[in-house]
Backbone:
């Protein structure tokens, strides 16, 4: 026995990012009707925070080219937050024009990664967020801040905490207090998630922290467990576990929403999500994109499905 | 932040059960040369406890029909424990005759499951283990005791701790102090693994506990994390994550050895296993059975593969 002490929250929040991070690497471009159907299905499952797309240049990511139309045409249900990713002020203006009230900015905490993608180091890039914060303030929009490569970078490996903390400070200076630590490459491990997560949650209690995990190397569910211990109570997920890197055939993508919901429910933790309906969203998404994602409960079934099947089997046996 | 306190061991033991639990449901029957090649590869990777097969009736599980021949022909490397599953005294005698010195008995802690499979409730079935314990004692063999359905049963759902504890007591009365808590249906969840695991490890400190996990519902890696906190320091795994139920297409099987090794190494926990070689075993196994298993690191790659690829990419870019 160890002296370890695990603590479980009563309730956590699930943020559905399938329409953005799940779909953006898919070859098959979904049409607007399909996206609206998926969005309705997500809302129907009880998820209250939904990332609907990304206001990038239409040529940059074809799958995201109709985000403005999604935003204009979607049903808006009270109590649901419809969040969109914006790369810069222009994106934010488009988001606002289409009725979006919550936007997510994103920067890589890795200098090499940030320079590679945006030709600017992180703090330089964040200077562009100043007019975004002003615009959001004037237009009554809320902002969220994402930090990619927070758990490891393909170029730099693990990123020192101090380097991440500089970005956190910068976001806070901009008045942004909802921050996500993102692991798009699936490099986070549970020990790190506990230690680093606990440090940030302790140091910045005013922040609403979101943990954004990918399951590329099979560590994501372990990271959820460690993340709960660190004190995270909001997790991004994508229906059907979509969002794998297009250059790694067969690799997993975002952690699957329905797997996280199933895990948490099995542990007696409330998510407010109807698992059956979340699984249905994932099935619809797989059908639309034309291939399977990476969802354990879609393939293996829920615990309760197993007990139901066995009961059925026993009943049939008795009837014979 | 929470008051949770996570503790990580310096070193854990990996037991490879791919040759038994991994292969036993595979349609393609491997020949003896293939099995010996797999076994050599497992030993080569540094794994010190290997379940080589099962001494059941040859007609019961065709894939296991040549376990005796495997045992007779395998190279025996000093310091490696070659364990075999035996259902009863007859199996134990066959194991002994072929030079096996460590055998694993198994019983389901679920009455319904045990009666369904063996027509006897658990404690009645364990009466048959008394002559096994006597035989092992006389013949200088070591015994291990497995408890299936320990984390949940398709017929009965969660099994009360007291019911499991009766089985533990019975094994201890037989002088068996290596015990595994098995989750063949993938129903264990991390909260349960921590609470129940901690109870047993605290109550029976004289036992060498082994945690046997399946990833059917995507919870296994979370259960490893919780298991480490409970104080487990030995885990079964199967190369390539083989061992899915033949009636659930696409469902995961045993937790993949190489995924566990990768996870632990990323967390700075020593396993004594060469991950590259363990991945090689998994690749060989997939080739032999003719389909992919369920291995995240085989598909998504290790963290270090990613950094290497990026370095290569950067180098190539500079050369252009």
Residues:
């Amino acid at each position: 026995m160890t002296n370890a002490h695990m603590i479980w929250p009563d309730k956590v929040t699930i943020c559905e990012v399938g329409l953005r991070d799940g779909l953006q690497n898919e070859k098959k471009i979904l049409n607007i009707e399909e996206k609206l159907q998926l969005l309705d299905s997500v809302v129907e499952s009880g998820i209250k925070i939904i990332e609907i797309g990304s206001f990038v240049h239409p040529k940059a990511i074809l799958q995201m080219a109709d985000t403005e139309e999604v935003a204009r045409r979607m049903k808006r249900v009270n109590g649901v937050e419809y969040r969109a990713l914006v790369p810069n002020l222009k994106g934010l203006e488009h988001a606002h024009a289409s009725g979006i009230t919550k936007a997510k900015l994103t920067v890589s905490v890795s200098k090499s990664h940030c320079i590679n993608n945006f030709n600017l180091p992180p703090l330089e890039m964040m200077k562009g967020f100043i007019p975004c914060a002003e615009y959001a303030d004037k237009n009554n929009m809320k902002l969220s801040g994402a930090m990619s490569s927070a758990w490891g970078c393909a170029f730099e490996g693990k990123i020192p905490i101090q380097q991440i903390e500089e970005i956190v400070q910068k976001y806070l200076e901009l008045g942004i207090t909802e921050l996500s630590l993102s692991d798009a490459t699936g490099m986070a491990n549970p020990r790190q998630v506990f230690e680093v997560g606990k440090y940030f949650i302790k140091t910045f209690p005013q922040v609403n922290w979101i943990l954004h995990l990918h399951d590329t190397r099979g560590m994501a569910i372990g990271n959820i467990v460690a993340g709960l211990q660190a004190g995270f109570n909001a997790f991004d997920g994508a229906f059907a576990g979509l969002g794998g890197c297009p250059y790694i055939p067969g690799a997993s993508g975002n952690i699957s929403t329905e797997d996280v919901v199933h895990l948490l429910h099995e542990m007696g933790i409330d998510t407010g999500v109807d698992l059956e309906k979340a699984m249905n969203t994932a099935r619809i998404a797989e059908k639309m994109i034309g291939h399977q994602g990476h969802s354990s409960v879609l393939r293996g079934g829920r615990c309760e499905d197993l007990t139901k099947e066995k009961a059925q089997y026993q009943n049939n046996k008795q009837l014979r």
User: Anything to note?
Assistant: Chain B touches chain A through 67 residues (CB under 8 Å). The domain at 13-319 of chain B is CATH 3.20.20.70 (TIM Barrel). Strands of chain B lie at 13-16, 49-54, 81-85, 102-108, 142-148, 178-183, 208-213, 234-237. The first helix of chain B runs from residue 18 to 22.
